[in-house]
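Appendix B, Record 12. Input sequence as logged:
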Amino acid sequence: MIVECDACHARYQYDETRFAGKPAKRLRCSRCRTIFEVVNTRAFEAQPALKPRPAPDETAIRRPGTRSKTTPRPDRPPGALKLPPDRKLSLAVIAGPDAGRIYAIEKPRVVIGREDVDLALDDPEISRHHAAIEVAGERITVVDLGSSNGTHVGEQAVEEAPLENQSEFTIGGSTLMLIVTAG
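Logged structural output:
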């Protein structure tokens, strides 16, 4: 299919199999560096079930002291988080200020943010402790940590969402992709 940048109108050939069943993808124009969205007109696979982020109201606001953003959630039993022994996990930054960088996931819970975290990104639109990647064997989840701008999978703001190989999620102005390889 042919896609066109919204800003400079450069045209590119885009392989439709790269949608991997997703309804849309965000691309960066190699000419003007603008990020634009391409819609999959042949989306036929259902997206994985996502846990939507609650609408902002008094019950959804996290108050200081309710939960530390750097420790696992209380609903996770001790020892539930564990890296798979036969796989290597990485996060690739595919859009944003740190685009092109790849980070190895070497522990079952990795906190992403601007400072005092496991994976620090140079993105002013993300919170100090923005999101976490939690690995429980084969199950990999992105969890929003009460960030200001939210965590998005596709166009949907989520509080928690499952990830698979080559799943993408956006925090602030950065889009990251999970990469799972044989270990």
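Residues 44-48, 56-71 have pLDDT under 50 and may be disordered.
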